[in-house]
Design goal:
5-stranded parallel sheet, FAD/NAD(P)-binding domain, alpha/beta, binds flavin-adenine dinucleotide, about 375 residues
Length: about 375
């Protein structure tokens, strides 16, 4: 069994940043991702990123992984071992990981593990939601921005958070008509800058609206919408039909924590952070001392905070192995960056969720 010093599961912004942070400290890192290219969600983000300049704001998401990978190649000194097309199927309580690549299985026993597996999209229950033509926003983005395939011709977007707004704009850029964006809440959840952009392009955003059903014979041919009252109940008589061939769901994400459950990490249900999240200390160490976590797997946030959490997890996983140079100063810098990212009204929900989160290995 191979015994890398640190194995990182997930090569998105959190995993790449964790790898860079750990190799900079001198640790040897294996980075594992099931996708053919590293970058996670970023490989389909064609828009300029919002957030802080320190975390590549104003740079297109698709360009960020190249920057992190270039730094890893330059500073890795032979200690960086990336594995793509490789899925981690098992994470056991004795610290063993089960890897699968091209139908071959391999067991490894890293000394430390960082779980940076990102998030899964939430589904909405409504009649007809299993018809071909009902997609998650991530799938629509992957089709368009990774493979250059239009998902359809007329789209109904469900959800006016940042993802719904950004993907609607990207659909327009791809030449697809977006008939409407509907949102159950009485207010738009995403940033005003994105909402203004799509409205200026002629897409109506209908708040306090939901989908009642999708209809179609072999695939989606339309959707029935209705208004919602202040208790989120359908208002009778407000039904309207829209002819669309794609219904795109952008109704939230939930942390992908299956490997952490399997290993036996303690988790807590915190809706503000996206659902069940692992307990962890400020070092991003979970209730199992060999397991660290970072990014959307720890809390649904943004790439900026995912990168900083990755840097913290990489720093402390390496420190636990004895690579402890300059740890306090670096941690102070990273913690300040996280605080800045979570300050202001946009970070209020995350701050509230984190204030209710119990500690991980250091506290339990
Ligand atoms: C439309 C859209 C727009 C966005 N815009 C912005 C923005 O402007 N600014 C911003 O800061 N953020 C933005 N975000 C959010 C940002 O993309 C995410 O917060 C960020 O990618 C999370 O990083 P991560 O590394 O935790 O997870 P991910 O990027 O999801 O990476 C997780 C990786 O783990 C891999 N993986 C999962 N399970 C396994 C397994 N079992 N074995 C092997 N590999 C596995 C996956 O293949 C993936 O590569 C946007 C998101 C979307 C969807």
């Amino acid at each position: 069994m191979k015994k890398p010093e640190i194995a990182i599961v997930g090569g998105g912004p959190a995993g790449l940043s964790a790898a860079l942070s750990a190799v900079r400290q001198g640790a040897q890192v294996m980075l594992i991702d099931r996708d053919p290219v590293l970058g996670g969600q970023l490989v389909k983000q064609t828009h300029m990123f919002f957030g802080s300049k320190k975390q590549y704001a104003a740079i297109r998401g698709i360009d960020i992984p190249q920057k992190l990978l270039a730094a890893l190649q330059e500073e890795g000194n032979g200690k960086f071992d990336p594995r793509v097309n490789t899925t981690v199927l098992g994470c056991y309580d004795d610290g063993v990981l089960l890897l699968e690549k091209e139908d071959r299985a391999e067991l490894i026993q890293p000394r430390k593990i960082i779980i940076a597996t990102g998030a899964a999209e939430k589904m909405l229950p409504f009649p007809g939601n299993d018809l071909p033509g009902v997609y998650g926003a991530g799938a629509v983005q992957t089709l368009m921005n990774v493979y250059g395939i239009k998902p359809g011709t007329r789209v109904l977007m469900i959800g006016a958070g940042n993802i719904g707004l950004i993907v609607s704009y990207q659909l327009l850029q791809a030449g697809v008509e977006v008939t409407a964006i509907i949102e159950g809440a009485p207010k738009i959840g995403g940033y005003l800058v994105h909402a203004t952009k799509v409205r200026r392009a002629g897409i109506p955003i209908l708040t306090s609206h939901t989908i009642k059903k999708a209809y179609g014979c072999d695939s989606v041919e339309g959707a029935v919408l209705c208004n919602l009252d202040e208790k989120w109940c359908a208002v009778p008589g407000t039904e309207q039909s829209l002819a669309v061939d794609v219904i795109c769901l952008a109704v939230g994400l939930t942390p992908q924590t299956e490997l952490l459950w399997q290993a036996g990490c303690e988790q807590q249900y915190l809706p503000e952070l996206g659902g069940y999240v692992p307990l962890r200390s400020e070092k991003m160490q979970t209730s199992l001392s060999h397991l660290f976590v970072a990014g959307d797997a720890a809390c649904i946030e943004e790439a900026g905070s995912a990168m900083v959490e990755g840097k913290i997890a990489g720093l402390f996983a390496a420190a636990d192995l004895g690579y402890a140079e300059n740890v306090e100063a670096l941690n102070e810098t990273f913690s300040r960056e996280l605080e800045e990212l979570r300050s202001g009204p946009a970070g209020a929900k995350i701050r509230q969720g984190l204030s209710r989160l119990k500690g991980g290995a250091q506290v339990c």
